[in-house]
Amino acid sequence: MTAGQHPVGGAVRQPADETPLPAVSIRRHAISYLLVRMTGILLAILVCGHFIIMHFANDVAATNASFIARRWSHGLWIGWDALMLAAALLHGGIGTGAVLADYTAGRRRRVARAGLAALTAALFAYGALVIVRGAGS
Amino acid sequence: MSIAQTLFVAALGLLVLALIAFTGVVVVSARRVDGGAYLTWGLARRVVMSRADRGELNRWAFYAHRISGMAIFAFLALHIVDVSLYSFSRSLYDNVHYLYGTIPVRVLECGLWFAILFHTLNGLRLLVIDVADMGRDTAARVLLGITAFTIAAGIAGSLMILVPGLS
C-alpha cells in the first residue's frame, strides 16, 4: 500500500480547510503506486517461482555453488535473477519508503529516506555486479 | 563454525530481532492511530455476526502485509550478500550456504514461505480491489479465502522444507 492511502482502503480525504496536495506530490504518488503494482505482478511470478524451484523442486541443501554455476550458464536464469533483483529492490524500496513515512517526520524522515535510497541503490549495484561476474565465468 | 558462518548467523539473528521490534512498532502505532487493538475474542463473534464489520479484517490484513513485506525485504538484503560470496570464492559460498540446510534456518525458511504467500496473494487482492472495483463484502470474502490458502499451502510447503525426502 502506497503512502497517502488509508489502511482500510481508499485515498485519504483532504479536509476542506486544508490546502490540497501539490500536483508534483500527486504525480509522485501515482508513479510509485503504478511501480509497486507492476513490479508486484512480476514478483508474484518471479519470487514464488524462485522459492518453488529452490525449496520444493530441489532441496535447499543441494543448491550449492555447482548448482549456481549450472544455472547461470543459461540466459533464462540470468535474466530471471537480474529482473527479480531489480523488481524486488524497486518494490521493496518504495514499500519501505511508505512505511518510513508513516513512522517518521521532518528531518528524520528525509535522513531515513536518503539512507534507504542509498542502501537500495548499493544492493542493486552489488547484486548486478555479482550476476554479471557469475554469468561471465 | 567459520567466521563467515558466524557472521551469517549473527545477521540472521539481528534480522529476526529487528522484525520483532518492527512488529512492536506497528502494534503500538495501531493502538494509537487506529483506536486500539481489536484482536480480542469478540473479533470472532463480530466476523460471524455482521457482514459490514468484516471490513475491520482489512485493517489486520494491512498490518500483516506490512510486517510480511518488511520480513521479505530484510531477508532480500541478507540474501543478496550471501549469494555474492559466490563471486569471491565457491567454497566460501558453499560454507555459508550449508547453513540453509540446517534445521533452525529451515524453520525460518518456513516463516519466509508463509510471508511470501500472504504478501503475494494479499497484494494481488489489493490490485483487484482497485481494478475491478470490488465491494467491501467481496473483498472480505477474498481475504478469508487467501488466508485459508496461505495456511494450507504454507503448511504443505513447510512439510516439504522440513522433511527433504518429501519433494
Number of strands of chain B: 0
What is the CATH architecture term of chain B?
Answer: Up-down Bundle
Count, helices of chain B: 6
Uncertain regions spanning at least 5 consecutive residues of chain B: none
Q: Could you name the CATH class of chain A? A: Mainly Alpha
Q: What portion of residues of chain B belong to β-strands?
A: under 5%
Identify low-pLDDT runs of chain A.
Answer: 1-14
Structural domain count of chain B: 1
Largest interchain contact:
A-B, 42 and 47 residues
Radius of gyration of chain A: 19 Å
Gross morphology of chain A is elongated
Q: Which structural category fits the helices and strands of chain A? A: mainly alpha
Mean pLDDT of chain A: 87
Q: Briefly note the CATH topology name of chain B.
A: 3 helical TM bundles of succinate and fumarate reductases
For the record, what CATH class of chain B applies? Mainly Alpha
Q: Spell the H/E element sequence of chain B.
A: HHHHHH
Query: Share of helix among residues of chain A?
Result: over 70%
**Average pLDDT of chain B, to the nearest integer?**
87
What name does the CATH topology of chain A carry?
Answer: 3 helical TM bundles of succinate and fumarate reductases
Oligomer: heterodimer
